[in-house]
Amino acid sequence: MSAYESKLETTDATICFTVSIGLVEEDLGRFEDLLKVADEKLYAAKTGGRNRLVR
Q1: Which range marks the domain in which residue 39 is found?
Q2: Which residues belong to the signal peptide in this entry (predicted)?
Q3: Domain tally for the chain?
Q4: If you count Cβ atoms within 10 Å of the first and of the last residue's Cβ in the chain, which end, N or C, has fewer?
């Protein structure tokens, strides 16, 4: 996941950022259900630490 840890350099500052991803790979039918599961997985990725992908 090191590709998701990066720096953005501007003339005034360097901004460091990381990425946490919640990925839903199955068809849940309704968009609301997909969004709910993706949100749960994103929360799990964020609580697990930086640069996480939760499937």
Answers
A1: 20-55
A2: none
A3: 1
A4: C
Give the residues across from 31 on adjacent strands.
Answer: none
Q: What is the pTM of this model?
A: 0.69
Q: How many CB atoms lie within 10 A of CB 22?
A: 18
Alpha helix (H) residue ranges in 1-55: 31-48
The answer as to whether 25 is a domain residue is: yes
In a domain, 7, yes or no: no
Rounded-to-integer distance, Cα 55 and Cα 39, Å: 11
pLDDT one-digit tens code per residue, 4-49 = 567 888 899 998 888 889 999 988 899 999 999 999 999 999 998 8
